[in-house]
Design a protein that fits this description.
Layout: E1 23-30, E2 36-43, E3 50-53, E4 71-79, E5 85-88, H1 98-101, E6 111-114, E7 117-120, E8 125-132
Antiparallel strand pairs: 1-2, 3-4, 4-8, 5-7, 6-8
């Protein structure tokens, strides 16, 4: 990218940050056949420090898995941040009375995640499985 001496440009930079927080820093830019200068960088973003493999964004496309077969999708979750996480998977919209509901069977659901609860310390990983089936019968 060329920037003339009297020119000003915004440069979009993507970074992978390990911890949640507000970052204000500088980038050192070296000018070809010239001097190095520090440029202030302001960043904002949304995210967390839990990495899932395969990557789960706001949704995961199971493609044709739900058409007629049972499936198991293993997913590895790693805590890359410094915070301790407790992860609980539930289909209940309110977890206020969750303790009363934990021992109830999951009848009628086509998905189940095992284990339903785990804890992750810094740099710790856990593999969980999304199990699913379709109740639809083809004739």
């Amino acid at each position: 990218m060329d920037i003339m001496p009297d020119e000003e440009k915004n440069i979009r930079v993507s970074v992978y940050l390990m911890d949640v927080g507000k970052y204000v820093s500088k980038i050192n830019i070296t000018v070809q056949n010239g001097e190095s200068i520090d440029v202030k960088v302001f960043g904002e973003g949304v995210g967390h420090s839990l990495l899932c493999e395969p990557i789960l964004n706001s949704e995961y496309n199971a493609e044709e898995l739900l058409t007629h077969q049972q499936f198991v999708l293993p997913i590895k979750m790693t805590n890359l941040g410094k915070r301790y996480y407790k992860v609980r998977w539930t289909s209940y919209s309110s977890i206020r009375n969750l303790r009363d509901k934990l021992d109830q069977p999951h009848a009628g659901y086509c998905f189940r995640i095992k284990p339903e609860y785990f804890e992750l310390a810094y740099l710790e990983s856990q593999v969980f499985e999304i199990q699913g089936h379709s109740n639809f019968q083809r004739h």
